[in-house]
Specification:
Helices cover about 40% and strands about 20% of the residues. The two termini are about 75 Å apart. A hairpin with a 2-residue loop joins strand 7 and strand 8. By secondary structure, the chain is of the alpha+beta class. It has 11 helices and 10 strands. It is elongated, with a radius of gyration of 37 Å. It has a 7-stranded mixed sheet with strand order 1-5-6-10-9-8-7, sandwiched between helices. Strands 2-4-3 form a 3-stranded antiparallel sheet. It has 2 domains: about 80 residues; about 230 residues, BirA Bifunctional Protein, domain 2. Helix 5 packs across helix 10.
């Protein structure tokens, strides 16, 4: 019997199986009630008394060895199947190069991260809007040029439904639903009916910010603008504010920064002035606060907005706005090292 046990141990060591059916057949052959191991167990009663101890130990070893081998074959088969399932057979055999973020996404994230340091949170809204949230609530007069069909894309010639021309519509929606303090950033895509050229496009991207609370002043706005400019373009960046007009802010201003290309000395990019305009801003007009259900006698606030393409041009010196939407790999691959 010892010889038979040794023979079976050798067989079991060399067992192989590529399918579940083959493993089951091996289990039946060796471990079933009529299997070879069970047959030896049945013959154990015929073993001489002085050999029972040794034979019994070898039989137990054989049974454990057979069970372990069958389990190993099952586990190996399951692991191989799991590995095969993880392979995407539709994937191309050629290496897939890692992509990179779009320059607009890079700059948008940078602007939002800077304003988050000042306590702003992101708010979003629909791109298809109504007249109230885009114009009327923001103190646009009925005859304001921005309402003209040449500037705005209206839906199915309906003057009440349009593609938003600025992300200020998100601000009006937030002000309607939330009482101050309000401190939000509104990034997003906007649309205007303009001829496409290297300087303009029919869609572009904006980031606007709104802060409303008690005792908010123009000095608070100026400090926020200076912080934003230095974080975006470097600690040596200077700003200047020029009086301007926007229907939804009073007083209003446009902000210039010292040209980061020539350092303020004058170059073709800044038209030899040393300054480049990057955004508009101002104190929220009391009419806008009242239209949105906020008491202008208690609360004040400031708003600012900028075109992301404009900031991206300054940071990466992109001369043609159309490059941002043409999906030219030669252009996009230049940003592989950008975060």
């Amino acid at each position: 019997m010892i010889n038979k046990i040794n023979q079976l141990l050798s067989e079991i060591d060399n067992l192989k199986a590529a399918k579940a059916e083959e493993i089951e057949a091996l289990r039946i052959k060796y471990l079933s009630k009529k299997g070879e191991v069970s047959a030896l167990m049945n013959d154990f009663r015929n073993v001489a008394a002085d050999q029972k101890r040794e034979v019994g130990m070898r039989l137990n070893e054989l049974k454990e060895k057979a069970q372990d081998k069958i389990n190993q074959l099952r586990e190996s088969l399951e692991n191989n199947q799991a590995s095969d399932d993880a392979i995407d057979l539709t994937r191309t055999a050629a290496p897939i190069a890692l992509g990179t973020r779009h320059p607009i996404s890079i700059v948008k994230k940078e602007i939002c991260d800077i304003l988050r340091k000042l306590g702003f949170s992101i708010a979003e809204g629909p791109e298809i809007e109504d007249d109230w949230h885009v114009f009327s609530a923001l103190n646009f007069a009925d005859d304001h040029p921005a309402r003209d069909m040449q500037d705005t894309f209206f839906i199915a010639r309906n003057p009440e439904v349009l593609l938003r021309t600025h992300t200020s519509s998100v601000q009006t929606r937030v002000m309607e639903k939330q009482q101050p303090p309000i401190r939000i950033i509104c990034p997003g895509r906007v649309y205007r009916n303009e001829a496409i050229s290297y300087r303009a496009h029919c869609f572009f991207h904006q980031v606007e910010a709104l802060y409303i609370d008690k005792n908010v002043s123009f000095a608070d706005l100026k400090q926020a603008l200076l912080f934003l400019a230095k974080e975006l373009f470097g600690a040596d960046t200077k700003i200047r504010l020029r009086p301007s007009y926007f229907p939804f802010t009073e007083p209003s201003a446009e902000m210039d920064i010292s040209c980061n290309i020539c350092g303020g000395k004058g170059c073709p990019f800044c038209k030899h002035t040393g300054w480049v305009e990057i955004l508009g801003c101002g104190m929220v007009d009391p009419n806008v606060l009242e239209s949105c259900g906020i008491d202008s006698r208690v609360y004040t606030g400031y708003a600012l907005g900028m075109g992301i393409e404009r900031i991206t041009n300054l940071k990466y010196r992109v001369s043609d706005l159309r490059l941002f939407s043409e999906n030219d790999k030669r252009f996009l691959e230049q940003f592989e090292s950008a975060n």
